Amino acid sequence: MAIVMALPAPIAASPAAGPQVSGVPVDAPECRLCADAFGEKAETPLRIEIRSGLTFGRMALVSEADGRAAIKPENGGMRQEEGLVDLGGMVFTGEVIITGEPHKPVRVDLPSEVRLRAPGGAEARLTEFTTDLPPVPRLGADGVLKFQFGATMTTTRGRGGDFRGRIPISVSYF
């Protein structure tokens, strides 16, 4: 018997929470993340906007083993690697916009693992995060850097569900 699961957008920030850098409100006094690696204070604090989270669409488990699917930021496509069959639906890479000091290099950190949970108690995890960022990301002349990210989702013990979670993304001047 196949279990259908929809995997909507795990996101890093809620628009209602306001702009944050590594969980610290941008408006907070004494922005500790507004300095570069040499301790020089940047004129413009960094801001992160999450345009879209990861969405894996709809899949069915075809066995009681773990299932794996991956979204790659290079082409936005998804592939099922083990135990899952694609049932269609929209698939989206995560999209992030960073604004700050023009031409400044930045460091972007994604987690090594994120736990996702479904209302019925099932769990999945996101690992192997990838981005389309260059080796040393740099804000453009307009102070903006856009990038996409993907990850591998693994279901556990053949349990499906409507999985959700948050992906913490931190950004600092390099």
Automatic annotation (TrEMBL):
Q: Name one Pfam family in it.
A: DUF4402
Q: Note the InterPro entries from the entry.
A: DUF4402
Q: Which domain of life is it from?
A: Bacteria
Designated name of the protein: DUF4402 domain-containing protein
Annotated source species: Paraurantiacibacter namhicola
